[in-house]
Amino acid sequence: MAGMDLPLKAIREQIASAFDLVVHLQRLVDGTRKVSQISEVQGMEGDTIVMQDIFQFVQTTVENGKVQGYFTPTGVRPKFYDKLESAGLYIQPATFMPTEPAKFRR
Fold it and tell me: Could you give the CA distance from residue 2 to residue 46 in angstroms, rounded to a whole number?
């Protein structure tokens, strides 16, 4: 589609329909990079691409210059879950349910 002058909304709609999942990486204060969020692309709302977090990293502290924390589900079961199962990938539904973090989980 090179050379075509598409409206911004049309481009965003194509992007939203092409991706199910976005993995966000973040550089933390200790200089390391961690996955900070795993989000589902849910579609469009007006001119905006709507995303919903499925998992997120929760920073608890910085010890000896290293970021400490844990990765936790948000409680949202992704809409594309059925696509995963039809592709032969089974993830237990409990994986998406939040649990109490261990006090010193890293």
Answer: 25
Point out which residues pair with 26 in neighbouring strands. Answer: 34
How do residues 35-93 score in pLDDT, each as one tens digit?
Answer: 999 999 998 998 889 999 999 999 999 999 999 999 999 999 999 899 889 999 999 98
Q: To 10 degrees, the CA torsion angle through 91, 94, 98, 99?
A: -120
17, 37, 15: which is closest to 26 by C-alpha? 37
Phi, psi of 81 (to 5 degrees): -55, -40
**What is the C-alpha to C-alpha distance for residues 59 and 48, in angstroms, rounded to an integer?**
29
Q: What angle do CA 74, 17, 93 make, to 5 degrees?
A: 30
**Contact residues for 14 (Cβ-Cβ < 8 A; gap 6+):** none
Query: Domain segments of the chain: what residues?
Result: 8-96
Radius of gyration of the chain (CA): 17
How do residues 1-42 score in pLDDT, each as one tens digit?
Answer: 566 788 888 888 998 899 999 999 999 999 999 999 999 999
